From TrEMBL:
Name of the protein this chain belongs to: DUF229 domain-containing protein
Recorded family membership: Belongs to the sulfatase family.
Statement: the UniProt record of this protein carries the keyword Disulfide bond: no
Source lineage: Bacteria, Candidatus Aerophobota
PANTHER family: ARYLSULFATASE FAMILY MEMBER, ENDO-4-O-SULFATASE
Length: 335
């Protein structure tokens, strides 16, 4: 089931919101074509909402709960729920936003800048962060609704449950309101992965190992005793989750447009694929990634760059070579 209307989905063509409705969500210094188009399209898509159940997280997780009810007698099932929220625009019901910012004395900004945070006043940034927190709380509530339905149907004792995120977002950290390829920060790349085993294996354990999001399918198949028909890149990480296995990866790498991030236990590296505009941080001394030491350690930068290229198959793909000199995915420092 595909629930339409998120962000700038061309879902509705009207009626067009009033200027007053649009400008209520845009600070004066940002009232340009980009934000006006973004907000107006979104407001068209969500026009007519009256109740919390009309918001996207509620619709997604209620649809999942209904699917469980229809299929509760199935011997086996595999269900994936993909919730776009808490992606921007961060637009929770007012009651959720008021948990974090009860006042009504500012513009109700709910979009991402994909730029410098100092374009916003401190007051507007506080409201934006409250909207984000409210959106996360809304998602948490309706995920809880879905899990409660699983409990009511007697599925918690025989079903493996996994929750994973795809990326984070800077909300003032590093003077950014964005997700970006450069700097590719911890706020962007440190992802959520939770797995609940129906028999309680590893309950309440926290694993700090380096893993990839594509390790999740391999881990699920292994728990089900299923051999994949074809080789998979992902690895079974369950022994790590239980605190019993050896580390699988001594580093991880992530590509975004023409940018790459590589980290191991000691360093965090971020640059163009070909090594330009390098950022290097010592994770032991600088866990918040505030002091770039790339100039002092060009040898480490070269090593990390080569690790990324090796992870990509040993050379930079031709299509990425063509991106050299092009903006890529919201590169802020690199620009």
């Amino acid at each position: 089931m595909w629930i339409r209307g998120q962000e700038c989905d061309p879902y509705r063509s009207g009626p067009y919101p009033s200027q007053e409705e649009i400008l209520a969500h845009i600070p004066e210094n940002l009232r340009n074509e980009r934000f006006i188009n973004f907000i107006s399209k979104y407001l068209m898509n969500v026009a007519g909402r009256c109740y919390e159940e009309d918001y996207f997280p509620a619709r997604v997780f209620k649809a999942g709960a209904r699917w469980l009810e229809r299929n509760q007698d199935a011997e086996k099932f595999f269900l994936v729920l993909d919730s776009f929220d808490p992606h921007e625009p961060w637009d929770p019901p007012i009651s959720y936003r008021k948990m974090y910012d009860p006042d009504e004395d500012t513009i109700d900004f709910l979009a991402s800048l994909y730029g410098r945070a100092d374009q916003l006043s401190g007051r507007v940034l506080k409201r934006l962060r409250a909207n984000y927190a409210g959106e996360v709380t809304l998602v948490d509530h309706w995920l809880g609704y879905f899990l409660e339905e699983m409990k009511n149907l007697g599925l918690m004792d025989n079903t493996l449950i996994a929750v994973i995120s795809d990326h984070g977002h800077c909300l003032g950290e590093h003077n950014l309101v964005s997700k970006q390829g450069h700097p590719m920060t911890r706020e962007i790349c440190d992802l959520l992965l939770m797995i609940r085993h129906p028999e309680g294996e590893g309950a309440e354990m926290v694993c700090e190992s380096l893993v990839y999001n594509y390790d999740l399918p391999a881990t699920i198949l292994a728990r089900l005793g299923i051999e994949p028909e074809k080789p998979m890149e992902g690895r079974d990480i369950w022994s790590l989750a239980l605190g019993k296995g050896k580390e699988i990866y001594d580093h991880i790498s992530c590509g975004w447009g023409p940018f790459v991030m590589v980290r191991d236990r000691h360093y965090w590296y971020n640059a163009y694929l070909w090594g330009e505009v390098p950022l290097l941080y010592d994770l032991e001394k600088d866990p918040k990634l505030e002091k770039n030491i790339a100039q002092e350690h060009p040898d480490i930068c070269e090593k990390m760059k080569n690790l990324a290229i090796a992870d990509a198959g040993g050379e930079i793909p031709e299509f990425l070579k063509k991106l050299k000199g092009k903006p890529g995915c919201t590169p802020l420092l690199a620009s």
